[in-house]
Design a protein that fits this description.
Elements: E1 9-12, H1 22-35, H2 42-48, H3 53-64, H4 74-91, H5 99-108, E2 113-116, H6 121-131, E3 138-140, H7 153-162, E4 169-173, H8 176-184, E5 188-191, E6 204-206, H9 215-224
Parallel strand pairs: 1-2, 1-4, 2-3, 4-5, 5-6
Helix pairs in contact: 1-4, 3-4, 4-6
């Protein structure tokens, strides 16, 4: 067990961790599926949480059966998801409990931070517009990497942009694909469940809310928890 690593950066998923956006996604998905003459349940949403938008669009395409209809392509469904979320995030991006306080604490301590999301850049920028573009040090969006979560590339990219060792990073995630990406990158993993259960895994620490943690807690975690890589 490597207990001597330092804490060099804190990396955040966006949807469901910093922003309470999963209800917005559910609304968008239901609206699109209603237009296709199909139903969309919370269970359907949960099957897609944490994955790339293309996978969600493919699942919706299959679930709808897509008989004759004007919106008949996976790419069209993906764009409809992006446009629908952009409309909603332009109006508001409600934060998860504790998110603003924790980001402010990290900024005050000059702790490097990153937002690492499977959502596209235009959606990440809308959220950052509400948070303040200086709320995090860097951000990585889903359309800026070749391989998205659960591949480690998004978190490896964030660590590279911050010029830190991924093994010295703590990641906060709410989904199994996101946690798999963080673990594969060698980061320390903290699960913050939102709409789906994330289960257990070696080295995974699970908390109920960002309100439960602060910078001293993160330092302590980095010292006692080995990286996954």
């Amino acid at each position: 067990m490597n207990a001597s690593r330092r804490l060099a950066a804190v990396l955040f998923d966006m949807d469901g961790v910093l922003v309470d956006s999963e209800p917005l996604w559910l609304d968008v998905e239901r609206t699109i599926m209603h237009g296709l003459g199909a139903r969309w349940s919370r269970a359907d949403q949960q099957r897609c949480v944490g994955g790339p938008l293309r996978r969600t669009a493919e699942y919706m395409f299959t679930s709808a059966g897509l008989a004759a209809h004007s919106m008949t392509g996976v790419a069209a469904l993906e764009q409809a998801l992006i446009d629908g979320m952009a409309d909603r995030l332009t109006a508001a991006a409600p934060l998860r409990p504790g998110a603003a306080r924790l980001l402010a604490e990290l900024a005050a301590a000059d702790m490097p931070t990153a937002l690492v999301t499977s959502s596209y850049r235009n959606l990440a920028d809308l959220v950052l517009g509400h948070l303040g573009h200086d709320a995090v040090s860097v951000s990585v969006a889903g359309d800026e990497v070749r391989r998205r979560k659960p591949h480690p590339e998004p978190y490896l990219t964030a660590a590279r942009l911050l010029d830190v060792d991924p093994r010295d990073c703590v990641v906060l995630e709410d989904s199994q694909p996101g946690l798999a990406a963080a673990a594969a990158a060698g980061c320390r993993c903290v699960g913050v469940p939102d709409t789906v259960s994330i289960g257990t895994a070696p080295g995974l620490v699970v908390i109920d809310s960002l309100t439960d943690i602060d910078l001293p807690w993160l330092y302590s975690l980095a010292q006692r928890l080995p990286g996954a890589g």
